[in-house]
Amino acid sequence: MSLDPLDPPLHGSLPPEGAPTAGTVAVVGAGNMGGAMVARLSEKGWKVTVCDIDLTCQRAARAAGAMLAENPARAVASLRPGGVLIVCVVTAREAREVLFGDFGAARHMRSGQTVMLCPTIAPEDTEAMAEQLGWSDIACIDAPMSGGPGRARDGSMSLMLAGSARVLDRHAGLLNDLSTQQFRVSERVGDGARTKLVNNLLAGINLVGAAEALALAERLGLRLDTTLDVIERSSGQSWIGSDRMRRAIAGDLAPRAHVTVLEKDTRLAVEAAQAVGFVGPLGARAAQVFAQAHGAGLAKLDDASLLKYLRSGGQPPP
Q1: CA-CA 20 to 30 A from 237: which of 32, 78, 131, 246?
Q2: What CA–CA distances, in Å, run from 182 to 86, 176, 304?
Q3: Among 127, 158, 189, where does a domain finish?
Q4: Mean pLDDT value across the chain
Q5: pLDDT of res. 23
Q6: Which residues touch 169 (CB under 8 Å, ≥6 apart)?
Q7: Residues in the chain with pLDDT < 70?
Q8: Total of domains in the chain
């Protein structure tokens, strides 16, 4: 994610730095999940400032009532004392750039403000960023999320929270407006990231399994829609399998979650397992399937395209 200033900005100027505001939040990364969070918070009455280099995301944020900032440093200028910066990018590298890069937010934040880290990243990266923020008395909430944009928009996504109970209590209003499904994992920053990796490893395994099962059903001459009807009401059901395979059967591979997302997440989960000496039979194989699908040219498609990949016998589809 590049953080060069927008050219040109789509909205008017931000309020002067230090101007009094109430209920303010800055969000960096207003894609599928971040954009849904922006829309929900705006609807709930929060004054939201958004930084995202994608023009479509900018327009959606502005339509939701958010103000735009050209970089993270300017985004946090709108925060009141005790305000929150929500980082909703994809990778640890992007999160570090948001916080500590040339246009980084951290050095423009004030003591007592809070960063909420939402990406799925390695626990050690979350811990390192939280430690660096702590040097400036900036709190960190480790807050990976799950459920997809629809659930982020209606407030029913899962939030896996780790951090000081005092900090979580202080921001209960914001967290409650974001999600009715909150899990306080522990007070140790990094445990939210660990929980998310465990969840996403299982999601990846379930998705690979669902795609494999339907590819087999097709080879056996079965109707895929009927087969999925049976699976959804039987012991083979999984949420991600149903969600993705319904779209795959319909030929809808427009990206909601690119193949590269679960490729990254399953790889990180396997690396976390290796770090504690755990070797399981399925995780590494699922991660390998996502990497192979990427290599077969499906990286920019929705991860529902695993069915397309396995239909072809694991070869690059025509």
Answers
A1: 32
A2: 16, 8, 27
A3: 189
A4: 92
A5: 85
A6: none
A7: 1-22, 315-318
A8: 2
Dist. CA 312–CA 309, nearest whole Å = 5
CATH of the domain at 83: 3.40.50.720
The structure's pTM equals 0.88
Residue 229, number of CB atoms within 10 A of its CB: 12
Residue 4 lies in a domain: no
Q: What's 304's domain CATH number?
A: 1.10.1040.10
For residues 83 and 148, state if they share a domain.
yes
**Residue 107, C-beta contacts closer than 8 angstroms, at least 6 positions apart:** 73, 100, 136
Per-residue pLDDT reduced to its tens digit, 49-74: 999 999 999 999 999 999 999 999 99
Q: Do 145 and 67 reside in the same domain of the chain?
A: yes
DSSP H or E run through 249:
helix 239-249
Q: What is the pLDDT of residue 316?
A: 56
Query: How distant, in Å, are the alpha carbons of 96, 123, 124 from that of 272?
Result: 20, 8, 10
List the domain range (segments joined by +) for residue 144: 24-189
Burial grade of 137 (CB within 10 A; 0-12, 13-18, 19 or more): exposed
